[in-house]
Amino acid sequence: MRPRISHIALIAALTAGGALAQGAEETVDLGTITLTALREAAETLRTGVSVTVVEAEDLRDAGDIRLSDYLSRLPGVSMVSSGPMGTRSSIRIRGAEPQYVAVYIDGIRVDDATEISPQFDFGALSTSDIARVEVLRGSQSSLWGGSAVGGVISITSLAPTEDGLSQTVAAEAGSYNSSALRYSLAFRDERVEAGFSLSHLKSDGFSAYDTLPRSPGLEDDGFEAVRLSFSARYRLSDALSLGAAVFAQRSENDFDAYMADSTVNSQERRDFGARLFAEYEAGNTSHLFDVTRYRISREIDEGGWLSSYLGVRQGVSYQGTTEINPALTLVYGAAWQEEEVTNPALPGGASTRTAGVFGQALWSPTEDLDLSLSLRQDDHSEFGGQPSGRLALAWQAADGLTLRGAASTGYRSPSHYELYGDPTWTIAANTGLNPEESRSLEIGGDYDFGGENRLSLTLFDIRIEDAITYQSCPYDPLTWACLPGTTNVYENEAGTSKRRGLELSGEARLSDSIGLSFAYTYVDASKPDGTRLLRVPRHSLAVTLSAALTADLSARIGVQHLAGRPAEFGTALADYTLVNAGLGYDLSESVAVSLRVENVFDEEYQSVPGYGTPGRAVYLGLTGRF
């Protein structure tokens, strides 16, 4: 039977980084707790869906600067990057493109509405102040609304992990004249939890444009970012808590034009997010109210051609959770959201609004069986109503064995650019666009052999209909102008695109001091006409070997292999293998030093034709906790 966990108590325990006591003797390992899979705290094995939970310790041990690099090694996840830190970095889940992945930071939706197809650019997001990441795979619109077609990524900033006042200072420097600094301050007592983090990242980078083999002497494309995050929670009583979360980031980066080096292209980006919330528990019911706002601005200079983009998303939501009895819990709520966009195509701005209601029943008819059914109805200001749903099952079939399955639907709303067009490029408005719709199926199993030895297998199938695609006009070959009476436009494409495959992951304890983990994903992704979707590898494998060499010295070696990528516009993309390695040494209980090497064998590869990737790079870091 699925145990219900007090949301207020859970958040306190999550920030402590320990286990949550449920009774006099029972505890729950918080590494197995998810908040996104059911919008209610639950053990991952009892949700029936595929979710991966990443803790701050996992990120710290891996040592990646960009979060997207770490995510790319998780089951079902792949990443495409167009150069060094700061340039575009896109995440795909189960072969579903970035516009089908809903991304949240501290409960704030951060997809960029100014994009042609709204998506979150991970290129400027580092791992420096992240406490937790949850990656939920499969269509999840019934709980998380539009765009959650391939899945959801929920990111939580650092928060207090111990009572009293604590501080952390971290510094790292290395190749490409890179440096990273972070300071965090946290305080916690019986009523107050507050955390503050300030980080600075700078790198000269390498050329975003490059060839294979690499071309020496190209101009470097640098990056610099300052990020501030703050969170606080105050318990007015055992039943009522008030809280807030704020983050702000300012970043600047250089970039190159497609298939050409450039010394004049640059971007300034500003991100700001804020959330106010109240949690109240009364008997068997908990209530969560929140207000969110996200603002992103981008100023792009392409050799004197200036473009400005501004997107604002604000929302209000309510969620209630009622435990009817120990076997049945209801989760329900309502949300309202408004998106406003101003860009070169819409200099006067445009806005859309979405209102929705959802409900979910969590039923455990036996101690070993958990079922969930969720339904949602959204109403969009342009295209009207859109339903979605999900049914999931988890069965503890035997000691250590969980069998699970889920069937769900999802959708993506047309973007402002797709709806209203762009006169500059003779793209006509098409306010008659329908939302894209998805159907997602998965079955899988998890087996715990004991002794930190685990294996997980999932088969999945995602199908998308009414995909919104760009349709170009017939044009005059001399002037490149559309022929009279024709225009470019975005339209719903007939047919169904398919993304199907499997995820296999596991962990093994080879000895008391040596551990092995791996994640393999196979994806067959095709368009309605049967041709393969671009930038989706057929095979991806990540293997990590970690060892505690002494009480104070640890080592880590990771191998990542991608194979079977389709050719892109006539350019073949070769398979490649990357090897990363790292050492960590505790100088004392509060001070640690780290050494890591990326791309140990200096592999030359590209994830996008014509865009560079890093060679061998070495970084030395120092962390102090007080």
From TrEMBL:
It is a multi-pass membrane protein. It comes from the Bacteria. It is found in: Cell outer membrane. One of its GO terms (cellular component) is cell outer membrane. The keyword ATP-binding does not apply. Residues 182-600 form the TonB-dependent receptor-like beta-barrel domain. Transmembrane segments: none annotated. InterPro entries: Beta-barrel_TonB (IPR000531), Beta-barrel_TonB_sf (IPR036942), Plug_dom (IPR012910), Plug_dom_sf (IPR037066), TonB-dep_rcpt-like (IPR039426). Residues 46-152 form the TonB-dependent receptor plug domain. CDD domains: ligand_gated_channel (cd01347). GO terms for biological process: cobalamin transport; monoatomic ion transport. PROSITE patterns: TONB_DEPENDENT_REC_3. Keywords: Cell outer membrane, Ion transport, Membrane, Signal, TonB box, Transmembrane, Transmembrane beta strand, Transport. Residues 1-21 form the signal peptide. Belongs to the TonB-dependent receptor family. This is Vitamin B12 transporter BtuB. It comes from Pseudogemmobacter humi. The lineage of its organism: Bacteria, Pseudomonadati, Pseudomonadota, Alphaproteobacteria, Rhodobacterales.
